[in-house]
Amino acid sequence: MTHYQLKYKSYGERSILIEWPSEIDKYILHDVLIMKSCIQKNISESILEVKNAYNSILISYVLAIDNVNSEILVLKSLYLKKKYQNHDSKKLWKIPVCYDAEFAIDLEEIASRKGYSKEDIIRLHFEGDYTVCFIGFLPGFLYLEGLNNALHFPRRATPRIAVEKGAVGIGNSQTGIYPNLSPGGWNIIGNSPVQFFDASNAIPCFANAGDKIQFIPIASYEYQEISFLVANGTYKIESEVING
Amino acid sequence: MVEITKSGFYSTIQDLGRYGFQSIGVPSSGVMDIQSANFANLLIGNSENDAVIEMTATGSTLLFHVDTTICITGADMSPLKNLVSLKNNTPTLIKSGDVISFGKRSGGFRCYLAVLGGFKTELVMNSRSMYNNVTAQHKLKKGDRLEVLKINSDRSYKNATLKFDTSLFNENYIDVFKGPEFDLLSESQQNLICSNEFTISDANNRMAYQLIQKISNELDAIITSLVLPGTVQLTPAGILIVLMRDCQTTGGYPRVLQLKESAINILAQKSTSQRFLFKLIG
Asked: What is the pLDDT of residues B53-106, one digit of tens each?
């Protein structure tokens, strides 16, 4: 198993930041998630929060850190023995998306500037194999890795004040779904009726870092049907267990 | 039960925050000035995590439908009980029918009102702190009815006045540590940040405080990484942004400084056009 050269940095009085090489890379993400799981399993009682991004982990302790160097040594030794740990199984979530014109307000512009048909853009988007790298920006906003290079498209010069809940967007090399009405600068190519964040649910967000996402294109009438089930609380997102 | 009869500029219910959910993008939230809020709870024998009302810039008006005890701390907003002056930092007995209101603010920006046993508003993901799309409402409004405990004892706290050093609110220095990207700054940028006086812009709220003076900057954005309340970001346009309690969990700007936890409390009591300096410690 690869061992990267990590940097450990003190961050305020109560946190330590661990950094991997500065790039977005699925092997790095894999290593980050294994380390995160090791930290959660081994030193959970002294930790308030542990969260990851593409190439970093931030550990916030319950109490101010007495001796940063000794905490860093604990983390370094966890990293060295990480290969002996099992990590959690991951899931593949099948997310329905309606790419119809009523939702896909920026699809025409992307297609014409890219010189593709709208159908090509949609197909390239739903054929993608996406990995949830982490969740941030808004509660339930998934940062996904895996957007086809052909679909990379700059953020809008001026962000919109209100992007619809469920809007599926493209911003530079990233794609994602707005879990709630929010300001946003990504180009909108569809909408998903699925609830990505529900504070009243025992599991407020179904996805976890490391899970896979597949987009399933649906027609407008299916969108209405699923929306109805979601509102009733009877919709279940289709998923499969996959090997991490 | 306590009824809000006037909302004030921006009043919310807050406890010490929501933990364990940042990995699904949920901010920690919680009282902006932990020290003042803790003091209010402490003076009436509450736990530190009991929910209080945080009032920003102007006070709310509250009609009590219960006998209880309250304590007001933080910014001095000239509190009144039935139109008679009250003191901050002093427990006050309340009879059902009493009205607490506020007047002119002098010193500080955020005022805390604690009630015996804490406000029993909805508990969402282990916290009562209000936040958009997490709790049903993100701020208090006229007509809200807040549950509180019914207290049968007549515990009196007449003698429990404690001195709270409000000169802290006028502190000109904000203590900071180096942030993860501090060393990427040039020496002249580092010197500027650590010696210039900065002014708080009108873009200041529970999420972040933007500062007016710019730092000329050639640093690119970073790969989206992790941030905390108290992180100071430097945007490509050279603007410094101090993240506060409702900040997002991730961000893509270089993190040049990190406020000491007590400095977040001090900054939370400052507002538009007030000035301060960063003081690098540790």
From this structure: 999 999 999 999 999 999 999 999 999 999 999 999 999 999 999 999 999 999
Q: Which CATH number fits domain A7-84: 3.20.20.70, 3.40.50.2000, 3.90.226.10, 3.30.1360.40?
A: 3.30.1360.40
Nearest CB neighbour to A49, from listed B19, B133, B261: B19
Q: Where are the domains of chain A?
A: 7-84, 90-242
Domain A90-242 - what CATH class?
Answer: mainly beta
Taking CB atoms and an 8 Å cut-off, how many pairs form between chains A and B? Answer: 105
CB distance B228–A60 less than 8 Å? yes
Nearest CB partner across the interface for A54, out of B21, B133, B224:
B224
Do residue A135 and residue B223 have CB atoms under 8 angstroms apart?
A: no
DSSP state of A114: H
Ordered structural domains, chain B, with CATH: 2-167 (no CATH), 171-280 (2.40.100.10)
A166: nearest Cα among A112, A235, A116: A235
With contact defined as beta carbons under 8 Å apart, do A64 and A13 qualify?
A: yes
Of B20, B13, B244, B12, the closest CA to residue B125 belongs to: B20
Low-confidence residues of chain A, pLDDT below 70? 1, 83-88, 244
Structure confidence by residue, pLDDT tens digits, B156-169 = 555 566 777 878 88
Determine the distance from the C-alpha atom of residue B126 to the mean position of all C-alpha atoms in its chain, rounded to a whole number: 19
List of chain B residues whose C-beta atoms are within 8 Å of the C-beta of residue A199: 124-125, 133-135
- Per-residue DSSP letters for chain B? -EEEEE--SEEEEE-S---S-GGGT------SSHHHHHHHHHHTT--TTS-EEEEESS--EEEE-S-EEEEEEEEE--EEETTEE--TTS-EEE-TT-EEEE---EEEEEEEEEETT------BTTB----TTTSS-SS--TT-EE------S----TT------GGGGG--EEEEEEPTTGGGS-HHHHHHHHHSEEEEEEEESSSEEEESS-----PPPPSSEE--TTEEEE-TTS-EEEE-TT--SEE-S-EEEEE-HHHHHHHHT--TT-EEEEEE--
Indicate if the pLDDT at residue B278 is higher than 70.
yes
Q: What whole-number distance in Å separates Cα of residue B35 and Cα of residue B169?
A: 11
* pTM score: 0.94
Q: Are A75 and A90 in contact (CB under 8 A)?
A: no
> Are B25 and A141 inside 8 Å of each other by CB?
yes
Put simply, the answer to whether A138 touches B124 (Cβ < 8 Å) is no
